[in-house]
Each structure stands twice: as structure tokens, then as C-alpha cells.
Amino acid sequence: GWCPLSPTGAQTTQLLVEPPWRPAVLWDQVTLTCQGLGTTGATTWYKDGQRCGQQGHDHLSVTESGTYRCDRPGTGLSPPVIVSDDDLVLQVPARALLEGDTVTLRCRG
Question: Distance between CA 47 and CA 64 in Å, rounded?
């Protein structure tokens, strides 16, 4: 039957976290990378719902805790990434996890 989604239409904007653990913590010197369709250098960044940073850069070095998202003209708004400034954090790998996966947790402080 007829399907409304072309393979390219299914693309979404992704926000990658380096180092690749969630929740991200400020003292890890976190870098966010925005990936999506559309022109490179057309990224808009948001922190706690407010536009922030210079438009255009695909990478953001995080200097404050908060909830970050990025927007690309071709694929829209990314899912949120939380950067915490907690002294103690239990982290999971920043990739999609499925039930039954073996996963390493990190308790860090």
C-alpha cells in the first residue's frame, strides 16, 4: 500500500554527546554535535528553551548545565540532551538501549 514516509523523510536531527554517556556532566567538558540534513553551518542551538550560541556551528562546547537542543532546517529540532552539574552521577551509554542488552553503568563523582 501507499506509505507516506520516504526513507529520506524519516531522517531526524540528532544531538551527539561526547564523552558518550548520559546524563552528561559539566565537569566532563562535554561537546555536543548536531547532525541532520540541510546546509552545514545552519544549526540553531537552544538552552532551556532559549536560543543560545552563535548560529551556524555544528559543535557546541558546554559551559553551563541545562537542557540543550539543536535545530537543523532540513530535519527540525533534536531530542533534548541534559547536562547536569551534580557532584555524583550514575551514567549509562548515550546510545539507544534495548531490554535484554548488557549495559555498563558508571557511578562517578
Answer: 9
Please give the Cα distance from 31 to 10 (Å, whole number). Answer: 26
C-alpha cell at 101: 542488552
Q: What are the residues whose beta carbons fall under 8 Å from the beta carbon of 27, sequence distance 6 or more?
A: 85
Q: Within a 10 A sphere around the Cβ of 11, how many other Cβ atoms? A: 16
pTM, two decimal places: 0.81
Q: How far is CA 105 from CA 16, 78, 81, in A?
A: 19, 25, 18
For the chain, list the domains and their CATH numbers: 14-108 (2.60.40.10)
Average pLDDT, the chain: 87
